[in-house]
Amino acid sequence: VAQLLDGKSCARAVRTRIRREISQIAPQIGYPPQVVFIQVGDIAASTAYVNSKSAMAQKVGMLSTIVRLRDNISEDELLEVISAYNSDPLVHGLLVQLPLPQWIDTLAVASAIDPAKDVDCFNPINVGRLALGMAGPRPATPQGVIMLLEHYGLHMGGLKAVVVGRSNLVGKPMGVLLLQRNATVTVCHSGTHDIPRYTKEADIVVVAAGKPGLLTGEMVKPGVIVVDVGINYVDTGEDGQSHVKGDVDYATVEPLAAWISPVPGGVGPMTIASVLWNGLQLYRAALGSDSEQGS
Ligand code: NAP
Predict the structure, then answer these.
(1) Integer Cα distance of 88 and 86 in angstroms
(2) Is the pLDDT of residue 44 over 70?
(3) Which one, 86, 137, 163, 270, has least CB within 10 Å?
(4) How far apart are CA 80 and CA 164, in angstroms?
(5) Do 199 and 160 touch, CB atoms closer than 8 A?
(6) Confidence band (pLDDT; 50, 70, 90) for 239?
């Protein structure tokens, strides 16, 4: 029976640490970190994500502002809103919830976010800093996966890691972060022939494909560490309602795995904790650069 990579409990520990640090720093500085969440339109899932990130930010002692913009906003208008928050010295973190309407260029928006306020590592400058191993915010979900593994004392050095999925927000940076922890990394995608050939060899499998039940027991070796990033809304036909399912077929993988993250309650809470962690680091960095400028 696998041990659980419990994202809820790990996220709680991360938030406790963030709250403690803010309560130590903010009274001396005179203001807490502030994070601004921008949502365009009213996609229900985006509203839920923004609301929970904002609620968690407040819980750890940050100021949190949600900016909801109408669905038909132009790219220029959105860029103006971003620019206003970029130049507000009391805003330390800025996140634009994806997806954006199709007439807005996501890359232009990512590039417009001040890299020093970029809590989800969207800006290509921060993506470059990640690739080069330079300091900076890391993409929330893959960083949350690393935090989860490290929370349970799991070391990645020397292990064979397979990431399924190569999106810019999850799979690709996941590969980079595992590589930086000295894992030997293979990234699989929809063009990979014979994915089981790779996953069966792996000591760690991180699945981020958005395909419910993609990783089955036949595809892994005993003792594997499995992290399930997938969030899929699946109609099971049982009660006419959709249920959240991961990318891992839990029933067949769990009996073989040494460690496994559940869905829900695994990577989801870690992603939010990781955004807050980035918010705290950017606040700290802004304070540092203020004092440098002042000296
Ligand atoms: P995405 O942009 O759709 O990327 C999916 C990736 O998986 C692509 O690289 C795709 O390959 C690959 N893929 C799709 N089907 C595959 C298959 N059958 N075999 C191998 N590779 C396959 O999705 P994403 O944003 O990375 O998110 C992935 C999943 O994680 C989704 O379920 C999403 O909801 C979830 N997610 C969860 C969190 C969280 O906090 N827990 C955060 C972000 C995302 P190609 O590149 O070849 O098309």
Answers:
(1) 6
(2) yes
(3) 86
(4) 37
(5) no
(6) confident
Which ligand 1 atom minimizes the distance to the CA of 144?
Answer: 40
Catalytic residue at 228?
A: no
Asked whether 79 lines ligand 1 (CB < 6 A), one says: no
Tell which one of 146, 229, 234 to mutate to probe ligand 1, the residue whose CB is within 8 A of the most ligand atoms.
229
Handedness of CA 263, 269, 270, 272 (dihedral sign): positive
Please state, in angstroms and as integers, the Cα–Cα distance from residue 272 to each residue in 3, 51, 53, 73, 149, following that order.
Answer: 23, 11, 6, 26, 16
Query: Rounded distance, CA 37 to CA 54, Å?
Result: 7
Q: What is the pTM of this model?
A: 0.96
- Paired tokens of 284: 């700290």
User: What percentage of the chain's residues is helix, strand, coil (to nearest 5)?
Assistant: 45, 15, 40
φ, ψ dihedrals at 235, nearest 5°: -85, 105
In tens, the pLDDT along 85-141 reads 999 999 999 999 999 999 999 999 999 999 999 999 999 999 999 999 999 999 999
Provide φ and ψ at 245, rounded to 5°.
Answer: -125, 145
